[in-house]
Design goal:
This protein is an alpha+beta fold and about 100 residues long. It is about 20% helix and about 45% strand. The protein has one domain. A five-stranded mixed β-sheet has the order 1-4-5-3-2.
């Protein structure tokens, strides 16, 4: 089997919105998140502004209506160049009568 090279291993971690909402407000410009998945713990340093925006989105729409993700480059046990985003889930449109 051939071996291919890659410049980076990118990762997307889906977080629990309720846990993100319960985080304390950051007091510095960046904050470190520790994320557990499949018995492994990785860390990601994200902008405090992104965390505050995510918490505001969750407070406005509720945890069940928001998806929260961290994305970045996985290097060892760290997600580098990490970004945190909270997006409101868009409901799927009902199928039209002629589609049935």
């Amino acid at each position: 089997m051939p071996i291919l090279n890659s410049r980076a291993l990118k990762v997307t971690a889906v977080l629990d919105p309720a846990e993100v909402a319960a985080l304390p407000d950051p007091s510095t410009g960046r904050t470190v998140l520790r994320i557990q998945v499949a018995g492994r713990t990785v860390s990601a340093e994200v902008a405090a502004k992104a965390l505050r925006k995510a918490k505001a989105t969750i407070a406005q729409h509720g945890p069940s209506e928001v998806a929260v993700i961290v994305q970045g480059k996985l290097v060892g046990e760290s997600i580098l160049e990490a970004g945190l985003v909270a997006q409101v889930k868009v409901p799927k449109p009902a199928p039209s009568p002629e589609a049935q």
